[in-house]
Amino acid sequence: MLDKARLYAESKKCIRCGLCQAVCPSYRAVRNEASVARGRNRLIRQLLEGQLSMTPRLKEDMFACLGCQACQTNCPAGVITPELISALKAEYIEKDGLPFIQTAILRGVLPHTKRFAAAMKMFKLGQTLKIVPGVASKMPETLSGRLAAIPEHLPKPLSEELGHHDFPKETKVAYFLSCTTNYMFPDLGWDALDVLEKSGHRAAILTETVCCGKPQASLGDKETALKMAIHNIKALNKLQVDAVITDCATCGSALKEYPQWLKGHPMEEEAKRLADKVYDISDYLVKKGFKVGSRQQNLKVTYHDPCHLNHVLNVRKEPREILKALPGVEFVESPDADRCCGGAGSFCLTHPEISEKILEPKVSSIVSTNPDLVATGCPMCKIQLHYGLRKTDIKVVHPVELLARSFSEKSQRPDYSLKNL
Amino acid sequence: MKKGIPEQLILEMVQVLGKDRVKQELEDLICYSYDSTNLIEMPGVVVFPKTTEEVSSVLKIATQWRVPVTTRGGGTNLVGGTVPQEGTIVLSTQLFNQIIEVDDENFLAVVEPGLITRDLHRAVEAKGLFYPPDPASLNMSTIGGNVAENAGGPRGFKYGVTRDYLLGLTIVLMDGRIIKAGGRTIKNVSGYDLTRFFAGSEGTLGVITQITVRLIPLPEYKKTMLVLFDELDQAAETVSAIIRGKVVPTTLELMDHEIIDLIEQRDPVGFPRDVGAAMLFEVDGAEGEVQVQIEKIERICLSQGARSVKVAANQEDADNLWRGRRNAFGVMAQSFTNVYPEDATVPRNKVPEMIRRMKEIGKKYKVGMLILGHMGDGNLHPNICINDDESGAVERAEQAIDAVFAAALECGGTLSGEHGIGQAKKKYLSWQFDDDTIAVMKELKKTLDPHGLLNPGKIFDVDREEGLDDVR
Lengths: 421, 472
Prior knowledge:
The complex is a heterodimer of chains A (about 425) and B (about 475).
Chain A: H1 4-12, H2 25-30, H3 37-48, H4 56-63, H5 70-73, H6 81-96, H7 100-109, H8 113-128, H9 131-136, H10 141-147, H11 158-162, E1 173-175, H12 179-184, H13 186-198, E2 203-205, H14 214-218, H15 222-237, E3 243-246, H16 249-261, H17 268-275, E4 278-280, H18 281-288, E5 299-304, H19 307-312, H20 317-324, E6 329-331, H21 347-350, H22 352-368, E7 373-376, H23 379-388, E8 395-397, H24 399-405
Parallel strand pairs in A: 1-2, 1-3, 3-4, 5-6, 5-7, 7-8
Helix pairs in contact in A: 1-3, 3-6, 10-23, 13-24, 15-16, 15-17, 16-17, 18-20, 20-24
Chain B: H1 7-17, E1 22-23, H2 26-31, E2 45-47, H3 52-65, E3 69-72, E4 89-92, E5 99-103, E6 108-111, H4 117-125, E7 129-130, H5 143-149, H6 156-159, E8 166-172, E9 178-182, H7 194-198, E10 207-214, E11 216-217, E12 221-229, H8 232-244, E13 251-256, H9 257-266, E14 277-285, H10 287-303, E15 308-311, H11 315-326, H12 328-335, E16 338-341, H13 351-364, E17 368-374, E18 379-386, H14 393-410, H15 429-432, H16 435-448, H17 468-471
Parallel strand pairs in B: 2-4, 3-4
Antiparallel strand pairs in B: 1-2, 5-6, 6-10, 7-11, 8-9, 8-10, 12-14, 12-15, 13-14, 13-17, 16-18, 17-18
């Protein structure tokens, strides 16, 4: 249910300065006041004042928000518009339900590790039998182009390859495994573990954690999101670690926001205890020190700021610092590096037109710096940029992958058996 | 049927623009009912033309049906200038936003009105050119809105305002006629200077559909310095001393003690909280010239009793200092329920007197009187801050605003340096101008817009010839 009094008080805080126009990706794409925080906020306020009803049109305006949270970071009055929008989305989902395919994925697959694994196995089987490329050729390019970002021969999920493992009690850091990393980019996960290890931070990995809950939360399915948050908090807080590290901007932002999601809930304190020690991997490596290999790469690299890393975790300098430290890497800043790529989880599939309009200038600004690679600290941005750059030779990587490449050409599997400690 | 919008008018608009660019759902009307003020009024339809010809057709239809039109860019107006009258037409320029050319041989750019000011800055700076006007809203406001409001900004002292960079305009009059003012040359004395006449006309005379702006070479070097004062008075006197010293910094921004204190409470940048005032200077030009000016400013400030002078060591340092200034409005917005940002402007040598008087007014009416200002051109920003749950606060704020304008005029100044008159300052216009002057303004308006349909209720009220019955 909507906490109407709180939402109303929040919506009234908007001073209508319009600063959100400068940072909102959907506004820049469509240039319409209903597609920016100030307008959406006003609509919510009129709704709560009873001057507007829960129309399908209002629903469209809410669901056309990418959830990048740039408006919140840049709001002089500190209005939490993204939360207002999520609350309203939740109300709509309660009223109308979600499309079957989304319900199936958000509620039926993502929260359940085994089902997720099974789904990815089917995908992998399809790849091996060459069904996926065949099916992909019949899909719209918006979907097939993004599937192409996933490695052609998908390695085993990291969680599976790792199997059951123990870690010594004195381990001080835990690695939170993002779904995208685990199932689509397991090598990224191995690289993350590898560079942590090489820098002297052996990480504990919990395979019992589930999806962070952000996809559900931003689509308004708060109930499922909370269940998953509570599951993860319980699992992670069992560990006596000082830091919980993730290589996914969105997972990191979710873990940081758990206390906000659980405001007033008995788990709120536990959520805070966890949130206080959540780090993005670049941030952690730069803060605690990292080692760089000696392998020369001879690459020109630029960087794209993932919204959730930029606006929720405040991580901007750190990934750049890592890239600049790599032997043979020439770092170039691209214009508007902090502008959204338009991916935003399933947004690029539900709103292909807006997504393309956001992606287009992003791609030109990357291309304008003429790089070999663009690095970005978010697996979802990776997929979107891979799709956007499909007609160029520019590859997309996570900064941590490039750091790992300074040690060796291929991903290494750090030995996780206890006897080697 | 929405009040004032005949169904036939909508059909005609759709014929010209297509369904997607004629919006009439309640959600659209709500979103185009406000600007950055507290004023709000629901339009009857919002239209999004993309060409001069489409604007012409829209205005012809509106004239035929005698329905008023309010042109709107980013909707960041601070005087209610883009708030429509109930049930009328909002003409949004948001989709009419292309850069037609940036000409680096003739130092000019030709653009459409819905272009965001920052995008113009970036496009010309990429070619080593410079469009100096920099209103605080430049990341959201449109160039068309800047022309209609004759927007200024911190750089106004050295570089002037929007009006000073206009070479030519294409304007559509209310009856649909398309006229061309000015041209592509700096020197141009053929006929009346209609270009400057339309600058600052607040959407009441025509719809500006193409703008040719003058550019200058981008200064190669700039430096920022922060000067702290124990007393606000000292800072004000220093401004006069700097100008007497014939130094022209690019910007000369003042922040008073209350604002610095709020910045440090809410989003600290490291200003000492006990200072009476801080001034931020930016100096640009050739490297040697900048160095000389910085030294000169430093000498003058210290001789006026400045507590400290700090030159930003690098860009990051400078950005941090400017972050404080940029956040000034935000920290006020977080601390008070209502902030009235005014822009009373006085001749520069009256700045110290005006500042003293504003502080007295704040005390007298028991309202927050937080002062920012582009000091070099006397463009002060007194921010009247209240919490409207306090009884009588709104009334006291209104009295304080009256008193501020009276003081500005007594100092030989003007009601508005850069925000415009709009609806919010209409009642003061007769304080500044005599009857004959206002009568001439109204006559000019009547010549161009005989039915009083363009942005009615802004600057002053004119009689509107309804005549609807004849048309229908």
